[in-house]
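Could you help me review a protein record that somebody else here produced? What it holds is a sequence and that sequence's fold in token form. I have pasted the whole thing underneath without changing anything:
=====
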Amino acid sequence: MNLLWLQSGGCGGCSMSLLSHDARDLLAMLGDAGIHILWHPALSEQTGAEAIAVLEACARGDTPLDILCVEGSLLRGPHGSGRFHMLSGTGRPMIGWVRELAARARHTVAVGTCAAFGGITAGGMNPADACGLQYDGEVRGGLLGADYRAAGGLPVINVAGCPTHPGWVVETLLGLAMDAFGAADFDALGRPRFYAEHLVHHGCDRNEFYEFKASAEKASDLGCMMEHMGCKGTQAHADCNIRPWNGTGSCTNGGYACISCTEPGFEEPGHPFAQTPKIAGIPIGLPSDMPKAWFVALAALSKSATPKRVRENATADHPVVAPAIRRTGLKGRGPSGT
């Protein structure tokens, strides 16, 4: 399968993330799966006229294009001309190239939240008129339109994240190479279900503090960051704490609140990222699937039962009280009473 990777309005962070994949030789692994990278602006040797020739061959249909990956948001400004982002050496806007190549592609993949929904580049007043491939924020449409389907029959596949996890990208590409995806394998926002039907909360190493509502009060604290520090891990769709980055890390593991970077509009939450908005002392962003009354009742009960160890460790930057040493009480007696 021929893969072409374009970088549009973004920081290149998703490519940097991809290079941190666990595979010792990422390109060889993709090659073993039958995926041939025609061109990547940072990883390929071709530059200038050679690179343009690759794009032109794909656009004409002379070179089959199986997977088109786009990283970064699509800059439509000014006034729909796309001239805020011209592809060097071609005299054409990037959005023109993307439209033409997407019409040829068997599969089209938005790599990262910028390409999926607009992301960071679309924040604020958005003077560049940035959008995603098939979404403008949470509204279907974007550059290619709500009805776009690649030649293989699927809409744009949104591997969202800022940056996206290398495992999500590689597993998506391998799935496409094996022809393993159908429409039912993607959620309502076009994200692969294999990661988007988990929550960042799953596997978080602060879950004991969450259970007792023992909350962090400042950035260095060990406690749960949902109540005061803006963490959206109980709502964010991703498996970051089940498959840690580089085998060990995640935002919450590193002491930073989850900002739900896999969802449209995460870049403008309407409040400081590290602050939890509340009404009458109750966090607005409650855990998914939990009614407010249940949360209030659970929080009151949990806080009244918080062990001293959990309560004191929650507002410290290292464990100050170790778990008590006592018998587990799980050694039962046998049938004879011995």
